[in-house]
UniProtKB/TrEMBL annotation:
Entry protein name: FAD binding 6, NAD binding 1, and/or Oxidored-like domain containing protein
Family: Belongs to the flavoprotein pyridine nucleotide cytochrome reductase family.
Residue runs in coiled coils: none
Keywords: FAD, Flavoprotein, Oxidoreductase
Domain FAD-binding FR-type: 56-164
Pfam families associated with the record: FAD_binding_6, NAD_binding_1, Oxidored-like
Residues at which FAD binds: R112, Y114, L130, M139, S140
Flavoprotein recorded as keyword: yes
Keyword Protein transport assigned: no
Requisite cofactors: FAD
Any one Gene Ontology molecular-function term assigned to this protein's record: oxidoreductase activity
Length: 298
């Protein structure tokens, strides 16, 4: 473990980043101090692990691929392109964690959070994000102009979600691009041969085109312990796949209750979407008897 690099006070952009780079440094400093207390003098002399991304220092990654997945949503792939004293040999982060992207426009510097997702053939110092670009979005305007080879500044990873097999049932509820961290977590769980949990995903989308990572979810449906259902706001041009459950209606309390009944105490609910969506769904899950300590909201 490397000591954290102390940021300069001017590194704080005063735009309300969560987490702030100054707060992150204090947290990382405590972790490093604890690491030094625990490590034995005879240990830690093997190959040094140098992560290519750091929670207290921005690292340069260049855009190497852009793939459209819907009218407004893209997969953007980035590769390490920094010049540091020590060359990194890994890109380490936990499933569900996110990175912060820093940008600058006429109003100053600002950041946005994005979750890297597992993509086949992504290796080395490369990560991929799923992003929806809005016409009015501050970061969207800049990313729309981003060309292959252009460089960007990232720091991370952040996020305190940890996969646990203390529950027999894992119940995920996602909305729109909120599928990114949830897909990342589910992908890791189903590939763990020691996992004996039953995994259920309710995915809420505006329409059929808005079912993001649809092919990837369909493939995960081949695992014995994972199933998913899609709930649509509108059903224009609806095309269902074989054995795919797509409801031509929005998710409601009865859908949630029917799945949770008989599982309280043995179920963990994980939610990701807009603040309004997450708060509403959390209330419905609690109404079904699930304690708040068994609910995690990204």
């Amino acid at each position: 473990m490397e000591p954290p690099v102390q940021p300069h006070e001017t590194d704080c952009c005063n735009s309300g980043c969560n987490p702030c780079i100054l707060d992150v440094y204090e947290t990382q400093l405590k972790k490093y101090s604890e690491y030094l207390r625990k490590i034995d003098n005879s240990e830690g002399r093997g190959v040094e692990i140098i992560n290519s991304i750091n929670p207290t220092v921005y690292t340069v990654f260049k855009l190497i691929d852009r793939k459209r997945v819907s009218n407004t949503t893209f997969l953007l792939k980035f590769e390490y392109a920094d010049a540091k004293d020590k060359t990194p040999n890994c890109l380490n982060y936990k499933s569900g964690q996110y990175f912060l992207l820093k940008a600058k426009d006429c109003n100053g510097e600002f950041t946005r959070a994005y979750t890297p997702i597992p993509v086949q053939n992504d290796g080395g110092l490369v990560f991929t994000i799923l992003i929806r670009l809005y016409d009015w979005g501050r970061m969207s305007k800049l990313l729309k102009r981003l060309q292959i080879g252009h460089k960007t500044s990232w720091r991370g990873p952040y996020g305190d979600f940890s996969i646990t097999y203390d529950y027999k049932h894992l119940f995920f509820i996602a909305q729109g691009t909120g599928i990114a961290p949830i897909f990342s977590v589910i992908d890791e769980i189903v590939r763990d041969e020691d996992c004996e949990c039953f995994i259920k995903l309710f995915y809420c989308c505006r329409d059929c085109e808005d079912i993001l990572l649809r092919e990837e979810l369909y493939k995960l449906g081949g695992y014995w312990n994972f199933s998913y259902e899609v709930f649509l706001g509108t059903t224009t041009n609806l095309v269902k796949k074989y054995n795919e459950t797509v409801h031509e209606t929005k998710l409601n309390f009865l859908n949630i209750k029917n799945h949770i009944d008989g599982k309280t105490g043995k179920l963990q609910a994980v939610i990701c979407g807009s603040d309004n969506f997450s708060n509403n769904i959390k209330s419905l899950v609690e109404k079904c008897g699930v304690e708040s300590t068994h609910i995690y909201v990204f």
